[in-house]
Design goal:
Blueprint lengths: L7 H16 L16 H5 L13 H4 L11 E11 L7 E13 L2 E15 L19 E22 L2 E21 L2 H6 L8 E16 L2 E8 L5 E3 L6 E3 L3 E9 L4 E8 L3 E3 L2 E3 L1 E11 L2 E10 L11 E12 L2 E10 L5 E10 L1
Antiparallel strand pairs: 1-2, 1-18, 2-3, 3-4, 4-5, 5-6, 6-7, 7-10, 8-9, 10-11, 11-14, 12-13, 14-15, 15-16, 16-17, 17-18
């Protein structure tokens, strides 16, 4: 059934799968850059994209998705998000940038993620304590963590049989990690404070992502595991380690008609953000309303028990695309929700041939 002599690509994919399965059994992360951190089109669908992933953003979302994608695609994408509840001591801000080019069996890409997180330091105050009972003029010691990661990688895809493929993105990650204690009353104050002297320590690490995609008729089913090796980046001074959490997400998409598609994703592992545990479910739709324009919308929510008050992340997304010329699209999206979801926006230029 399988050839006796494996090609170089087969050897790399087999090594990645074994390495990934071993890594899944070890280590507990302490820092997160959320799974839906990159991709305007994906964010417009609420983050339900693992079972879609048919353009160059698949190098991030699901490497195996390239097998069922276009013969050639190019994506240039940028976005920003923040969740800083009013008068809270918890919050985070994130920015992203991605450039990728892909064909069904090969992809090349680079993306940059910058995450700043504020959490309580030595002075601990329960989240459910009424702020009106505290002296808001007094500044507490908060911890500000900053992690900038540059990911440069190559994506390799191998078809196992008709409609079924596996893929991996092998990448070098350059992380710049910094952490400091800061006197501030709220997370907003901490993020707005002058931190020009917050110097980060740069470290280079190897990492990989894994993907699986099965397509048959109108249905596609995908699985993606990111940050398999959980690379660690040491900060200056206190020597704390900011670790990229391993993330695993499954998803599917279904072509309801020639013009409309529905999708759903769900996290397989619990990760963490500034507010606690996170395990998301995402639902989204995408459709063509006129020959040159598409619309999309989605909803995501956190199923993990993130606080005693149960104020879990809930977010709603809207987005669209317009073909400015042939197969060249401009995409945009906006996401908003409750305090823990915050706000997010993104724009991208996408060419699909």
């Amino acid at each position: 059934m399988f050839p006796a002599k494996l090609t170089t690509m087969n050897r790399i994919l087999r090594f990645s799968a074994v390495f990934g399965a071993t890594a899944l059994l070890s280590g507990q992360p302490v820092f997160a850059q959320s799974f839906p951190a990159v991709g305007t089109r994906a964010a417009g669908m609420g983050g339900a994209f693992v079972g879609v992933a048919d353009d160059a953003s698949a190098i991030y979302w699901n490497p195996a998705g390239l097998s069922a994608g276009s013969p050639f695609s190019f994506v240039l994408d940028g976005g920003s998000s923040d969740a800083v509840p009013d008068r809270s001591q918890l919050g985070h801000e994130n920015t992203s940038f991605l450039v990728g080019v892909a064909m069904p069996a090969l992809g090349l890409g680079y993306y940059r993620l910058h995450s700043s997180t504020v959490q309580r330091g030595i002075t601990l105050v329960p989240e459910d304590v009424a702020l009106s009972s505290r002296n808001l003029t007094a500044a507490d010691e908060l911890r500000l963590d900053s992690l900038i990661t540059h990911h440069a990688g190559i994506t390799l895809v191998q078809s196992l049989w008709q409609g079924v493929a596996v893929g991996t993105t092998l990448k070098v990650v350059r992380g710049i990690a910094a952490s400091t204690s800061i006197q501030a009353g709220t997370a907003e104050e901490a993020l707005d404070a002058e931190v020009s002297e917050l110097l980060g320590k740069a470290t280079n690490k190897f990492d990989l992502d894994l993907g699986f995609m099965a397509a048959g008729g109108p249905l596609k089913v995908g699985l993606a595991v990111r940050n398999v090796t959980e690379p660690e980046f040491e900060t200056v001074g206190d020597g704390r380690e900011l670790v990229l959490e391993r993330q695993a997400r499954a998803g599917f998409s279904y072509a309801v008609s020639e013009k409309w598609m529905a999708a759903a994703d769900f996290d397989l592992l619990t990760t963490h953000d500034a507010f606690g545990e996170r395990r998301d479910i995402a639902l989204g739709v995408e459709g063509r309303i006129v020959p040159r324009a598409m619309v999309r919308t989605g909803f995501s929510f956190n199923t993990a028990d993130v606080s005693e008050g149960g104020d879990a992340r809930r977010a709603y997304s809207v987005g669209g695309s317009y073909a400015v010329w042939g197969s060249a699209y401009i995409d945009g999206h906006f996401t908003a929700g409750n305090d823990r979801a915050g706000r997010e926006w993104g724009v991208s230029a996408r060419f699909v041939y």
